[in-house]
Amino acid sequence: MKKIVLLLSAVFLLGLGAQAKNVLAEQIQSAEEKINDYLTQAGVFFLATEQDRQPHLRPLGMHFVMDGKLWFGVGDQKQVYKQLKKNPVVEIVALKKDNHWLRYSGKVVFAMDQKYAQKALEMTPQLKEIYNSKTGYKLMMFYLEDATALDMFEGRKPEQIL
Fold this sequence. Notes:
The protein is of the alpha+beta class. It has helices at 2-14, 18-42, 79-86, 115-123; strands at residues 45-51, 54-60, 64-66, 69-75, 89-95, 101-110, 139-153, 156-160. It is globular and about 50 Å long. It has one domain: Pnp Oxidase, Chain A (Roll). Strands 1, 2, 3, 4, 5, 6, 7 and 8 form an 8-stranded antiparallel β-sheet that branches. Helix 1 packs antiparallel against helix 2 (18-42). 34% of the residues lie in helices and 38% in strands. The longest helix is centred in the N-terminal third of the chain and has 25 residues, at 18-42.
């Protein structure tokens, strides 16, 4: 559905002036950026996976938008990586200080291009102590496809972000 909307928006953009194109481009791009900002404001957020019908949660903090996608990373030596490979359907939950909370769900897609891991290591230099040729561990980067994101607040209908 998202791809259809983006395609229709792109076709529509061809007939618009520069100012209208910029406004529409900001709206199209804003979902990933809005979720990224939300996660930044929350600080720590939680990734939910499952293994053998048992839910597993762990805190994450590193994220960024690049090439129009919101990226996260996990180590290839960790159980979370094995869980994501076996069942890529996940949910991320974040709580901001104003008591708004985010539910971001979708299917994990791992990156083939190492430029995303390089960006993560540049952003978070302490990860270089873990993910390097000496340890043999690799930082596996992923984004969510077929995703939905809801901004939740007590007593209010959830606002759909994505």
